[in-house]
Amino acid sequence: MTSIGIRLREERVRLGFSQTELGDIAGITKNTQMLYESEKRVPKADYLSALDAIGVNTHYVLTGNRSISPNVESIDLAEGMAAIPMYDIEAAAGAGRSFEGEPIKTTLQFPRSELTALGLDPMQIVGVQVRGDSMQGTLDDGDWALVNRANRDPKQEGVFLLLVSGERRIKRLQRLAGGALYLISDNELYQPEMIKPQDMGDLEILGRCEIRIGRVV
User: Which domains does the chain have, with CATH numbers?
Assistant: First the structure.
C-alpha cells in the first residue's frame, strides 16, 4: 500500500493544484506542503478539513481506500478547469468567513482562464445557491452565485454574501456618510436595512458575488 504522503500528492495532482496553490487553500506554506508529501511532517486535522472542502478525497489519503467521503464528489478535473465547491446558502449556516467543513452540495468545473480574465483567483471562488426572492431580478431563487472571497471591501459597491447576526444573506451594499452601510434588496417589496457603525460587529462580509448561474426563462 502507498504511503499518506504519496496519496496526498496523487490527490493534489488529480485536482490540478501545485504545491503552492494547495498550500494557499489550506493556509500553509509550500514548504509545509512539501514536508507533508515527503512524510517529514504529519498533516493536521484543520489542514485535512480544508482539503476535504475542495474535493480532495481525504478518506483515501488517510486510509488508501478510495471509497467516497460523504462531503466530497469524486471528480476528475479536465485540463484547464478549476474545481469550485458549491454550497446551499441555507445549509451553510456556520459562523465565520470560512466555508471549510460545511457540506458541499456539488462541485462545479469552471474554466480557469475565464476566471483569471475577470481578475478572479480560482482558489478564492466558492458557489452558493440563492434562497428566497429578496434579490429577484439580479439573483432569483434557485440561482447559483459565484462568490469571490478575496473581495470583502464595501467601498466597491455591489452584491455581497454577508453574515448578519450569524445568518448568511446576499444583499447589495451601499456605503453611507459616517460609516454606516445600507443592505439593499433588489426586490422593491423589501425595505433597505441600515447597519450603523456601532453595530458593525454584527456584520461580516464573506465575499463579493461576481457570476450568476441560473435558468433561462
Answer: 4-63 (1.10.260.40), 81-213 (2.10.109.10)
Picking from 1, 96, 80, 8, the residue whose alpha carbon sits closest to that of residue 44 is: 8
Per-residue model confidence as pLDDT tens digits over 118-171:
999 887 888 988 888 999 989 998 899 999 988 988 888 899 999 888 788 899
Return the HEC string of the chain. CCCHHHHHHHHHHHHCCCHHHHHHHHCCCHHHHHHHHCCCCCCCHHHHHHHHHCCCCHHHHHHCCCCCCCCCCCCCCCCCEEEEEEEECCCCCCCCCCCCCCCCCEEEEEEHHHHHHCCCCHHHEEEEECCCCCCCCCCCCCCEEEEECCCCCCCCCEEEEEEECCEEEEEEEEECHHHCEEEECCCCCCCCEEECHHHHHHEEEEEEEEEEECCCC
Distances from the Cα of 11 to the Cαs of 7, 107, 116, 177, 187, in angstroms? Answer: 6, 16, 23, 49, 43
